[in-house]
Amino acid sequence: MANLNIDSVKERTFDAIVIGSGISGGWAAKELTGKGLKTLVLERGRDVKHIIDYPTTNKYPWEFEHRGEMPLAVREENPIVSRCYAFHEDAAHFFVKDKEHPYIQEKPFDWIRGYQVGGKSLLWARQTQRWSDFDFEGPARDGFAVDWPIRYKDIAPWYSYVEKFAGISGNKDGIPELPDGEFLPGFPLNTVENYFSKHVKSKYQNRHVISARCAHISKPEPIHLEQGRVQCQKRVLCQRGCPFGGYFSSNASTLPWAQKSGNLTLRPFSVVQSIIYDDQKGKATGVRIIDTNTKEEIEYYARIIFVNASAINTNLILLNSKSSRFPNGFGNDSGVLGKYVAFHLYTASINAEVDGFKDMTTEGRNPAGGGYIPRFRNVYKQDTNFLRGYASGFGAYRSSGSHAEGIGAGFKEALGKVELGPWYVGSHMMGETIPKESNYVKLDDTQKDAWGIPQLRISVDYDDNDEKMRTDYVEQISEMFTTAGFKNISVNKTVGKAPGLDIHEMGGARMGLDPKTSVLNKWNQVHAAPNVFVTDGACMTSTSCQNPSLTYMAFTARSVDYAVSEMNKGNL
Amino acid sequence: MDRRIALKNLALIIGGATLFPSDMLAGGKTLIQLKNITISPAQEKLLADVAETIIPKTTTPGAKDLGLHLFVLTMLDDCYGKQDQQAFITGLGELSQLIAKTSTKPFALWPAKQRETLLLGIDNGNYSPELKKFFWIAKDKTVQCYTQSKYFMTKRVVYELIPGRYLVNVPVKPPLKGASK
């Protein structure tokens, strides 16, 4: 029996454990296995194998029973996920339904989740911008949160490292606040987007309309072909999973790569209950999971642990990992764990009609989605009545439709005669929010989920800064549209929309220089438990207004490099 | 019959342009299994005739060929709320009475023009909100199913699953006069 137990423990012991297989967990898996570590990746959901498990990927519109629309019963049963822009018949199977993992909303918060191998990397909007020192120096300059323990120069080589492998398309625009990267050719701006770009450049200093940078392979390099990925085919059906591997996902890229190393063990259906802390050894020794099929509790052991469960679930795991050393949650000597949660402000959009350009159109579909307006407010100095700023998506499209009216044979014939209409433009805001102690997640004292784990209470809300920023976005973009000659400008200030639908929730286990006010150090390492690393959205000290995923990837690769070098030095 | 129903449903699911004899639609059973609403075979047949009036068979397939009314029912059953469903059923009943009042002939045997005039009259005429709602939903979903049918998306306005390209500054042909800015 004793031997059996020893064998069993041996079988459950790895060099490294990664909690989560999404965009950052996939990177942790790739980097750790690539450095020769036997790595266990724990995923709470089911397996999703590249191509094989993309059931809708090659379906035509008429092959969907409701042509994409979600049945009312599903929408009524799942009000939260139904508010997500991508929750349709072609991708609904990649979203967590409301009842599958309940949480308590102290304030309304739409928590959008993807519990499967690959997580939300299958579903993301694939926009990838670097941060700059205007972002990393933000908290120190503007006096909020805590100072980031790193600067752009620390992360820049790691941006390059992950960009080359993931495949990022974009142009070298030479904008200091949006540093250039290792780009595959950018997708072009169309006629009207290009007109607007030139207009903005001529009229405003330090405002730019550039081609959106995105994680699509516009032109494959050998490293992409080696992953089994090929050129993006401009289907723009990404949320179904891409059989070409045209966009970056854990499923298409990092996980198969990790698998090839022979060092990866992937365990789906494994909800992590907590990280095990050994008081005697003074370090984390492994994690405790619940097998979602058998409900069995199992422990796995490793020398280092990467927590990549997605921002809010990482907080949940850390908060639930209590020991005599950490009675208030793992690594929570500071008491800030779960606090200073922030997000991106997606609370306004603006559309308009364009006169002219009727001799030009587009053909095919643009994976980048169009243009991007980097943050121009409060960059070089404070120039408004609110802190920080916003980036904006910007796109133009040529409308088309038929002039069919009535019913009958003539109507039917007319439906098939599609004619081009006017061009339209649209913009949506993506604003930075200020992390605050009062925006937090914590464990409920009594209510538990299906696995016996405390339910989360989420208390996250907008503030006055957000409202002022929204007002400014509306004013500025409206003005830019007006001076560009766009007509019928229509502002949509989304009313009553809860935070969360940006799906950019961040923080709770922030990085910082001082263990008294932060959970992680400059290597994403838990101050008080050096063999545990957090490199997903939970680590974020501030939110910038750039999309965060690329930064998670870079943090992860950098952190693994540090962790393994420390292991090799015998420090971990 | 069951096998034929299964085939019909399969044809619907794959968006098929499978041709079925229209007299099948006049059978004693409905062709579609619905979860939330109940309609009679006669009502289903009338809806098929309405859809056929909106999208008639010409030199190209029409509503009955494409099973468009079955999509209307599927959408009504699955994607609409109780209030809309009830209005639709009530409106369908009112349409049946309106037809009977107008002519002793079955609707399907009316000349196309007469069928069109009756249906178009609903929108503008002095009719109940239920009948109007019925017509709007029937037309909207019939047209949606038609323009998103395999036939339409492969033969009329072609949908490309894999465009493989994104081109900008594509000149419009034939060029429009005086449109540039």
UniProtKB/TrEMBL annotation, chain A:
<feature type="domain" description="Glucose-methanol-choline oxidoreductase N-terminal">
    <location>
        <begin position="225"/>
        <end position="321"/>
    </location>
</feature>
<keyword id="KW-0285">Flavoprotein</keyword>
<dbReference type="InterPro" id="IPR051473">
    <property type="entry name" value="P2Ox-like"/>
</dbReference>
<dbReference type="Pfam" id="PF05199">
    <property type="entry name" value="GMC_oxred_C"/>
</dbReference>
<dbReference type="InterPro" id="IPR000172">
    <property type="entry name" value="GMC_OxRdtase_N"/>
</dbReference>
<dbReference type="InterPro" id="IPR007867">
    <property type="entry name" value="GMC_OxRtase_C"/>
</dbReference>
<feature type="domain" description="Glucose-methanol-choline oxidoreductase C-terminal">
    <location>
        <begin position="435"/>
        <end position="555"/>
    </location>
</feature>
<protein>
    <submittedName>
        <fullName>GMC family oxidoreductase</fullName>
    </submittedName>
</protein>
<dbReference type="InterPro" id="IPR036188">
    <property type="entry name" value="FAD/NAD-bd_sf"/>
</dbReference>
<keyword id="KW-0560">Oxidoreductase</keyword>
<comment type="similarity">
    <text>Belongs to the GMC oxidoreductase family.</text>
</comment>
<keyword id="KW-0274">FAD</keyword>
<dbReference type="Pfam" id="PF00732">
    <property type="entry name" value="GMC_oxred_N"/>
</dbReference>
Automatic annotation (TrEMBL), chain B:
<dbReference type="Pfam" id="PF13618">
    <property type="entry name" value="Gluconate_2-dh3"/>
</dbReference>
<protein>
    <submittedName>
        <fullName>Gluconate 2-dehydrogenase subunit 3 family protein</fullName>
    </submittedName>
</protein>
<dbReference type="InterPro" id="IPR027056">
    <property type="entry name" value="Gluconate_2DH_su3"/>
</dbReference>
